[in-house]
Specification:
The complex is a heterodimer.
Chain A (H helix, E strand, L loop, with lengths): L3 E4 L2 E5 L4 E7 L6 E7 L6 E7 L4 E4 L2 E6 L4 E6 L8 E10 L4 E5 L3 E6 L1
Chain B lengths: L3 E4 L2 E4 L5 E7 L5 E8 L3 E10 L2 E4 L7 E2 L9 E3 L8 E8 L9 E2 L3 E5 L1
Classes of the chains: A mainly beta, B mainly beta.
Chain lengths: 114, 114
Amino acid sequence: GENVEQHPSTLSVQEGDSAVIKCTYSDSASNYFPWYKQELGKGPQLIIDIRSNVGEKKDQRIAVTLNKTAKHFSLHITETQPEDSAVYFCAADSNTGGGNKLTFGTGTQLKVEL
Amino acid sequence: EAQVTQNPRYLITVTGKKLTVTCSQNMNHEYMSWYRQDPGLGLRQIYYSMNVEVTDKGDVPEGYKVSRKEKRNFPLILESPSPNQTSLYFCASSFGQGINSPLHFGNGTRLTVT
């Protein structure tokens, strides 16, 4: 089955700096890669996603890049703000034959310091 | 407001005492799923349901049961809880599976089994 590795597990940046979180996946058939943000005391919430036919997608201060050849994708947050502090999860969606399955990474705790 | 509602938010119980965590969604979603979140392990799928009366095992189903008698409800049942089931649990729902069906998560249930 699919295996998703996520790094780093913790990331601390100064406000205004950029943050990058990286994920690798194992199943070359995976074709959808969402990113979720989990704030303290809440459930994960989708913030951006990318499909396998696209190399990059941007939404204001966040962007995601995908390298299908290398089987890795990354989340980029520019001009970080304190409200960006949260746990971020990457995920990869693959078709298992019995339907699509979303496999999550282990999460990155991002802390934006003033 | 479109949402996934879990109850209770916090639960402390003793080994062997049966418990149920409820999950309800008001978005008419066909797909529902349960995850557990543990430090360093990310989100792991316990069970999922493609539609009413259709359920299937995820990656870590041992010790859990589910039912899907109605489209909106998907309770998680622990018949005989054990300390290794102490975790943060999330219910999620979506229209279907895969690319065009982002998951919507509840706010979680923190379970402690002593």
